[in-house]
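Troubleshooting log. The previous structure file for this entry was overwritten by mistake, so regenerating from the original sequence record. Sequence copied from the archived sheet and checked twice against the printout by T.R.
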Amino acid sequence: MSQFLAALIASGTILLIILATDLGQRRITTMRMLRSVIAVAVIIAIFVHSLPTQGNDVSLQLVGIGTGIIGGLIAGALLPAHRRGSGELYTVGGLGYALVWIVVSAGRVVFAYGAENWFAEDLVRFSIDYRISGPDTYANAFVFMSLAMVLARTAVLMTKMRKLNKGAQLTPSVSR
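Regenerated output below.
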């Protein structure tokens, strides 16, 4: 499978799951948070075939993870959480939230396409100059970026859920 096709499938799957579970008003549930983490774990199992550690391979993969964490924190910040009168917790995913995921997913796909069609020779030269062992390192960096982004967004949601629950416990109920 080409790197472009793998990136398209992986990015498209994650994007669809995230947007389907987060856009609009959505209840915060454990299954909702786990669903996207499980999807990324499946993507890793399918697309990560090795863990290159030569030269600067680990550094590039760590850059992917760091970028994913930043993206997930930004996405999480754009996903406000609220408590209904019934006590139910929910989020409101809007255009800004969707755009973060769309831009990041599109960036991965465009890079993979470009690596095969637009700048293949430049990427080989870059890889030699910076001691990156090959396509698996780039693919892993993008998959790890996806996982880190989903995990960071999930951590933000869990933090918001805890704050809302703590706030509800601190608010005394008024009886008449």
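The radius of gyration is 19 Å. Archived copy saved in two places this time.
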